[in-house]
Amino acid sequence: MTGDQGLPRLNRGTRPKPPIRIVHLGLGAFHRSHQAWYTQHAGDAAEWGIAAFTGRRPDAADVLAEQDGVFTVVERSGRGDSFEVVGSIVEAVDGSDVGRLTELVAAPTTAVITLTITESAYAADIAGSAEGSTPLARLVTALAARRDAESGPIAVVSCDNLAENGDVARQAVGALARARDGGLAAWIDANVSFVSTSVDRITPRTTQADLDVVAASCGYRDLAAVVTEPFHNWILSGDFPAGRPHWEDAGAVFVDHIEPFENRKLWLLNGSHSILAYAGLLRGHATVAEALSDDVCRGAVEAFWDEASRHLSGDELQIPKYRKALLERFGNSRIAHHLIQIAMDGTTKLRMRAVPVLAAERSAGRSGDGAARMIAAWLAYVSSTTELQDPLAADIQDAKTLDGEHRTAALVALISTELANDAATVSQIHGQLDSFAATTSHA
Ligand SMILES: NC(=O)c1ccc[n+]([C@@H]2O[C@H](COP(=O)([O-])OP(=O)(O)OC[C@H]3O[C@@H](n4cnc5c(N)ncnc54)[C@H](O)[C@@H]3O)[C@@H](O)[C@H]2O)c1
Ligand SMILES: O=P(O)(O)OC[C@@H](O)[C@@H](O)[C@H](O)[C@H](O)CO
């Protein structure tokens, strides 16, 4: 029992309600701590309201709608918490309400569509979603309405942890549009700008304990609060043909070439997160901070970083400083970032976090042992559990019916067929399976 039942519920009160000019798909914790926060901190925030749609369930929209869209961002550092009410989301909608999505995307006043639909949602859509119930299928329906309304060009901004996320979104949306109507695909090609971004702000799932802290500290009940680290970063590359908020006022950076920044973040931060997730869970840890304090996990992270750093060139990347900052961010034990959350959807994530580094090291004539160990940790982890959330969960279970190196090859194939076809790489990964837990069985 939280003891906060007598407190008033957070509501908008006299806070301004900017007009909707941004539509967001994937109303999760990260959208609230990142894009909504940046929009609130733009100098022209009064002109930019967000209508945010959930992905699979209405819950987050229901809770936020009860608060007229406002919520608390708790910035949690090693020293303490600070609280800020964010009001940039002005409408929270159940994602299944395609009518409202269509209406908003078709409006000429809407200029930007942002996405945090998870990495797997792009692949699922590429595979085809005839029933139109996935976020990108809904987006294509809404873009068709924008074309019909002659409301002009618009920007789609992927904020998911994917390499070249703008291009991935373009291809997925394009494939879906072509399957429906070639004319629509051509219109999208000519009128929709797909912006690539690198997004960063560690934001774990909110817990009841977090909500209790907000109630005790702020004197109101907020069921949509998010807890995040003070650090925030947003690098964007691409055009905004209908305008955008002045996000640079909040620290966003616009660049011509995003790839080095994307790789730095995806490999050094997300890659090491994956190592800590699988190795840490195998070794009995629950959070990032706990896993990092284990020398075996920390050693695996450092070895992977050494390899990845060789393929991240350019003074502007400031790799030593970035690595040092990551150790501090991961070590913030006041943020309970649960490894089990990071461990989800491993097949999709490792394709971007381990495979490119392993391939680059191999091409340079080195072993790529650090990257191979990330894959080995994933393999050992999926072998040790039946509770998996992964788009290829059924294939993982099938592969687990095999033994020894056959099993390893079958599991590696779910991440990269090229690696799986290379017997030396399969043996290399197989040989590392016991790196993290002697008790795990891979027979
Ligand atoms: N949380 C972070 O620290 C963080 C940081 C950087 C980037 N991101 C990116 O943001 C994404 C979302 O993170 P979050 O913390 O908000 O997660 P979340 O679980 O809180 O929210 C994700 C949203 O996407 C929807 N969704 C999830 N899977 C879906 C699917 N397969 N199809 C359709 N909709 C789906 C959910 O319903 C929800 O609306 C991540 O996958 C990642 O790509 C997160
Ligand atoms: O969000 P995911 O599931 O892609 O990855 C899990 C974490 O690595 C990720 O959320 C990081 O915390 C985040 O990318 C930091 O900005």
From TrEMBL:
Domain Mannitol dehydrogenase C-terminal: 257-435
One Pfam family, short name: Mannitol_dh
Coiled-coil stretches: none
GO BP, sorted A to Z: mannitol metabolic process
GO function term, MF aspect, one: mannitol-1-phosphate 5-dehydrogenase activity
UniProt-listed Enzyme Commission number(s): 1.1.1.17
Listed transmembrane segments: none
Catalytic activity: D-mannitol 1-phosphate + NAD(+) = beta-D-fructose 6-phosphate + NADH + H(+)
Keywords: NAD, Oxidoreductase
KW Metal-binding (keyword) present: no
Keyword Hydrolase: no
Residue ranges constituting the Mannitol dehydrogenase N-terminal domain according to the UniProt record: 21-248
Family note: Belongs to the mannitol dehydrogenase family.
Name the record gives this protein: Mannitol-1-phosphate 5-dehydrogenase
Annotated source species: Paenarthrobacter aurescens (strain TC1)
